[in-house]
Design goal:
Chain B: It comes from Fundulus heteroclitus. The complex is a heterodimer of chains A (496) and B (254). Chain A is an alpha+beta fold and 496 residues long. Chain A contains 17 helices and 19 strands. The chains are: A alpha+beta (496), B alpha/beta (254).
Chain lengths: 496, 254
């Protein structure tokens, strides 16, 4: 039966929305009064310059690198240590103020938007690298430490932290979003590489998920609290320390590029390379549209065809073996133009195309904004989903070059949209939903690395099912009964 | 030709650290602060190791002047591919007043002792920004110098150096033995990998005292005071262009 907007229904819906608005505005006034009350408490905890009400600062802390609009908090605080974080959280808890943790603001799913206002905890002043144990391959860092800063600090020890999501993100932020990157096929994602966390809960309680200072390489002690908080996107607690697993810097690296006659051929090569036991470090797929964009942007001349970018890590001798085997496999799948490079400068040139992909996509339509999709499916389903997705792109008249971490079955359509064309933006939104559902139908996930944030909450329900969602909600209610921790993210609660 | 290259490596406060001035303004805080090899020295070591890999020279010797901890810096150079190290022990007050003049005297003495064919240094250190040691060393030895090198190639007994200068690039050809100083774009230094760090533990570091080389460490400079740069003042917003011009006139800028 169709829903008909009769005059009485229209009046009813208008009244309902007025009541809702008034309710929201009462809520807003109540919250503003609460914020004013707590300002002096905040200032006494983290100092005069540790609290900011400035419009520019609040706007800076209300958005990330996604397409979601800015949702500024009411106030931003800059704690210096976990004791300050705990004291601030307690004040927020006692005054029912939402708490939004903020690392570097490089997220892609609107995770830092203060949809119900509240207090943004900017953790950038907590930037110590603590407890480095090179002999044990572990280190503990605070939220202000970024991936590149840690690797620079480690460079003389022969160790590195390989999870590389592209942006120079906060490592604790990466733990909060369960980030991944181009190296995941060999080194894993944050889930596999976080050993312990120090977390401040919504009422100020400080816990250590694996016990204070503990860093055994493996454990079967109790519930896996560490991985409960990894990927919780600030909805269960504020991560103030993370203990990370480190790896030896590879002795040598070789990069290679190869073109293929079809998506199937490229993915078949990927599967066979993995099945041959080659410990490949990076295997990236760029479709023909993407390669064309890269050629234009970086003045390169790769064949305009599905392309694989490969990177091998190891000793000089093992590299020779790896590259020879990989070349044979690609050739047997119709691969051509296999180029490889050993020295840093040539390797960087070979990979420039892949590194500039984001900008190359945007350069296809100057003045456009870019949005990245993020589905992940089992390897064997990859050719099917990419072919169907490319067909959908054509039919929807959308520009979406594809770049993917094909070794994990994860790919991104870099949707390039005109920010003033609402119809196109709507088409992109529908396309992204169809893509996510296509991935779910193929035993995959709607988000391989970016997280759920604001935009994928409904898809999460479809993905894990209502019973698992109930369990998630139960955990959330148990750890954060007042729903103060980053409201409106991951779970559809509070009417948002 | 001995085929031996001397590379100077200096232990400095790590480039990523926020420098703080001591409360008594006598210097900067170094206790408990992360130190590492001067970035330009890393480039110098890399160039020397590259020359050895191309079989153009036979041995790379890493030299550092400083206290006990300087040995860590030499170990990093060994992990990057240097063959052996020389630690010239300078500590206490002598170390606080150690500058390019004394270091260049030490390097000149070592170059003669080791019969070096080339000395490669970083163009400057990131703590004092002096940019003097390479030039002084060449003068003391009366050797040619190729400073601010962004490209180095060996041509028999001569070295072709492309130098970065204000107007662009200058290419010179100098005889060996010579002193080179490395600029930023000369190369990208390699990381020390675990196996190489292990191998480096077995390489030798010789201990030498400046007196053994006949070098007088007395400084001719005295640091009077160290201050932080002035704090940035808050700006102010004005409503109109007329207000802006008035403010600029008031403060004497226009």
């Amino acid at each position: 039966m169709f829903f008909v907007m009769t005059p009485s229904r229209r009046l009813l819906s208008l009244r309902r929305s007025l009541v809702h608005c008034r309710g929201v505005s009462v809520e807003n006034t109540g919250r503003k009064a609460a914020v004013d009350r707590v300002l002096s408490a905040f200032r006494s905890i983290c100092g005069e310059d540790g609290v900011s009400l400035g419009e520019a600062i609040r706007e800076q802390h209300g958005k990330d690198e996604s397409v979601h609009r800015c949702r500024p908090p009411d106030v931003v605080v800059f704690p210096h240590c976990v004791e300050e974080v705990s004291a601030l959280a307690k004040v927020c808890h006692d005054n029912n103020l939402p708490i939004i943790p903020f690392g570097t603001g490089t997220g892609l799913e609107g995770g830092v938007g203060a949809v119900k206002g509240g207090v943004c905890f900017s953790l950038r002043n907590m930037e110590q690298i603590l407890d480095l144990h090179p002999e044990d391959f572990d280190v503990t860092v605070e939220p202000g430490v970024t991936r590149k800063a840690l690797n620079s600090h480690l460079r003389d020890t022969g160790l590195w932290f390989p999870v590389d999501p592209g942006a120079d993100a906060s490592l604790c932020g990466m733990a909060a979003t369960s980030a991944s990157g181009t190296n995941a096929v060999r080194y894993g994602t944050m889930r596999e590489n976080v050993m312990n966390l120090e977390v401040v809960l919504s009422d100020g309680t400080v816990i250590h998920t694996a016990g204070k200072g503990r860093r055994p390489r493996k454990t079967s002690a109790g519930y896996n609290l560490t991985n409960l908080f990894v990927g919780s996107e600030g909805t269960l607690g504020i991560i103030t320390k993370t203990t990370l697993r480190l790896y030896g810097i590879p002795e040598a690296m070789v990069s290679a590029v190869c073109s293929f006659p079809s998506v199937q051929a490229a993915v078949d090569s990927t599967v066979q390379i993995l099945q041959a036991g080659i410990p490949i470090a990076r295997i990236e797929f760029l479709d023909d549209v993407m390669i064309d964009a890269c050629n234009k942007f970086s003045s390169l001349s790769y064949p305009v065809a599905p392309t694989l970018f490969l990177e091998f890590h190891g000793s000089e001798r093992s590299l020779e073996e790896q590259v020879t085997m990989a070349e044979e496999i690609t050739q047997s799948n119709g691969g051509s133009d296999f180029q490889w490079a050993r020295d840093t400068e040539t390797r960087n040139r070979l990979w420039k195309a892949r590194h500039d992909a984001w900008y190359a996509a945007q350069a296809l339509r100057p003045g456009s904004k870019a949005y990245s999709t993020d589905v992940c499916v089992p390897l064997s389903r990859l050719p099917q989903i990419i072919v169907e997705t490319k067909k959908d792109l054509l039919e929807s008249r959308l520009t979406g070059p594809i770049a993917g971490h094909v070794g994990d079955g994860n790919f991104h359509c870099l949707m390039v949209v005109d920010p003033d064309d609402l119809d196109e933006q709507h088409r992109v939104h529908l396309f992204a939903e169809r893509l996510a559902r296509r991935a779910l139908a193929l035993d995959g996930t709607c988000t391989g690395e970016h997280g759920v944030g604001l935009g994928k909450r409904a898809l999460l329900c479809e993905e894990v099912g209502p019973l698992a969602i109930q369990v998630m909600q139960g955990l959330k209610d148990s750890l954060d009964p007042k729903n103060l921790m980053n409201p409106g993210k991951i779970l559809l609660n509070g009417g948002f | 030709m001995s085929g031996r290259v001397l590379v100077g490596v200096k232990r400095v406060i790590d480039y990523a650290v926020k420098i703080r001035v001591k409360p008594d303004n006598s210097g900067v805080v170094t206790d408990g602060v992360k130190h590492s090899m001067n970035p330009f020295c890393e480039i110098a070591v890399e160039e020397a190791v590259k020359l050895k890999e191309k079989k153009l020279i036979k041995e790379v010797v890493a030299v550092s002047c400083g206290p006990q901890q300087s040995q860590e810096t030499i170990r990093t150079a060994l992990a990057m591919g240097a063959d052996r190290g020389i630690h010239v022990e300078v500590s206490g007050k002598d170390y606080e007043t150690l500058g390019p003049l004394q270091v260049s005297k030490i390097l000149a003495a070592l170059a003669k002792k080791e019969d070096a064919q080339l000395i490669i240094l970083g163009k400057q250190a990131i703590d004092d920004d002096c940019n003097q040691t390479g030039q002084m060393t060449a003068a003391l030895l009366d050797w040619p110098q190729g400073t601010f090198a962004s490209e180095v190639s060996m041509d028999g007994a001569q070295v072709k150096v492309v130098r970065e200068i204000d107007g662009g690039l200058e290419t010179i050809k100098i005889n060996t033995p010579a002193v080179l100083t490395a600029d930023l774009r000369l190369n990208t230094p390699r990381y020390a990998t675990l196996p190489n760090i292990m191998k480096a533990k077995k390489k030798k570091i010789a201990n030498v005292k400046p007196a053994d080389l006949g070098v007088d460490l007395t400084s001719r400079l005295e640091v009077l005071r160290v201050d932080e740069p002035p704090q940035r003042q808050a700006g102010m917003k004005v409503e109109t262009v007329e207000d802006l011009v008035e403010k600029l006139r008031d403060t004497g800028m226009v």
